Amino acid sequence: MTERQWKPLAGVDRDCFACGTENPHGLKMRFESNGEQLRSFLTVRPRFRGWSNLVHGGILSTMLDEMMSWTAIHLTERFILTKGMNVAFKKPVRVGTPLSLNGYITERLSERKARVVAEIRDEEGEVCASSEGEFVLFTMEEFGAMGIMAEEELETMAAAMG
Ligand SMILES: CCCCCCCCCCCCCC(=O)SCCNC(=O)CCNC(=O)[C@H](O)C(C)(C)COP(=O)(O)OP(=O)(O)OC[C@H]1O[C@@H](n2cnc3c(N)ncnc32)[C@H](O)[C@@H]1OP(=O)(O)O
């Protein structure tokens, strides 16, 4: 069986703390999709440390939330909000070391909701942190009605989904 091809996804929100291409203070995460899962590769800079040389747990949680969010957006082609997430920190993660993340949908709970998992692995492929989150899914019209983003932004984002 041939492995599905990984394709880079466009970063459309320039100022997002996690994925913004222009945010000088952010993580600048990038994503790829093979249509079934998403993945991301990242080396966390020392500025995001907490205890000594360890990546701060809040930063790891942000990375997991972002991984799950992009997964939900691209695999359902809907706008999303994180309703809740649980995180397990399994192994310390050091700043300056290459990490890989992956995300996938475990359950489409309803037309409106999906359960998503994300994992952070070290260079040896061991899972250092993982999360499970519940995501509420919205159409562009519903998301627009919530006043979260401007009309032009909504359309740019909708065009980049899938
Ligand atoms: C494309 C390119 C990618 C770009 C990536 C860009 C960056 C992305 C970055 C992402 C960054 C990271 C992401 C973040 O960090 S997102 C930021 C963190 N999360 C939040 O701020 C969420 C705050 N919470 C809420 O707004 C509510 O609690 C939500 C909406 C989550 C649930 O609400 P509620 O507690 O009420 O839920 P329920 O379980 O009782 O469900 C009730 C029902 O109502 C439906 N419902 C609820 N509200 C609305 C609504 N306004 N219009 C239409 N329908 C609505 C709902 O679907 C359900 O439908 P049904 O099940 O009955 O059918």
TrEMBL record:
Database matches in Pfam families: 4HBT
Alphabetized SUPFAM superfamilies for the sequence: Thioesterase/thiol ester dehydrase-isomerase
Protein's GO biological process: fatty acid metabolic process
Location, primary (coarse class): membrane
EC number: 3.1.2.2
Topology class, membrane: Peripheral membrane protein
Source domain of life: Bacteria
Keywords: Apoptosis, Cell membrane, Cell projection, Cytoplasm, Fatty acid metabolism, Hydrolase, Lipid metabolism, Membrane, Transit peptide
One GO CC annotation: membrane
InterPro entries: HotDog_dom_sf, THEM4/THEM5_acyl-CoA_thioest, Thioestr_dom
A single MF term (Gene Ontology): thiolester hydrolase activity
Domain Thioesterase: 54-129
Family recorded in the similarity comment: Belongs to the THEM4/THEM5 thioesterase family.
Protein name: Acyl-coenzyme A thioesterase THEM4
Protein's organism: Desulfoluna spongiiphila
